[in-house]
Amino acid sequence: MSSCGIHSSAGLAAARYGIGVGDVQQIVETAVGGMNLSTTVEGRARFPIRVRYARELRDNVEALGRVYIPTLGGERIRLAQVADLKVLDGPPMINSENSMLRATVLLQRAWARHGWFRRGSQGAS
């Protein structure tokens, strides 16, 4: 599973523009994760109204690097100027398929070759 790693070098580069690490993190959080603007009520159900970048922009590291950050002086700089963005390999995660949770188990060949996994899984239902 890959993910986007954002290492904020805001301590050095952003300090030139008067931007704090928290400011950079909030902008990234809003662009990628979205922000609740309001709530809509439909009958008895309530749903948040979220605004965030389109998926093709959120899933593209180069596009995220072009996100503008406002400075105290009123100018706009790109996120790539104050942070390093990289695609990182991350741990596998539990996801869903047809609305059912699905977990993936990864094995190393050495475990299967020595029978460790087969012996340990025989008692599992």
The number of domains is 1
Largest sheet: 2 strands, antiparallel
- Specify the overall morphology: flat
Share of helical residues: 25-40%
Q: What is the CATH C level class, in words? A: Alpha Beta
Radius of gyration, in Å, reads 21 Å
CATH superfamily: Multidrug efflux transporter AcrB TolC docking domain, DN and DC subdomains
Strand content: 25-35%
Order of helices and strands: EHEEHHEEEEEHH
Strand order of the largest sheet: 1-6
Which stretches of 5+ consecutive residues score pLDDT under 50?
none
Number of helices, counting only DSSP H or I runs of 4 residues or more: 5
Characterise the protein shown here.
The chain has 125 residues and is an alpha+beta fold. It has one domain: Multidrug efflux transporter AcrB TolC docking domain, DN and DC subdomains (2-Layer Sandwich). Helix content is 27%, strand content 33%. The strands form four sheets. It has a two-stranded antiparallel ribbon. Strand 4 and strand 5 form a beta hairpin. The longest helix has 13 residues. It is flat, with a radius of gyration of 21 Å.
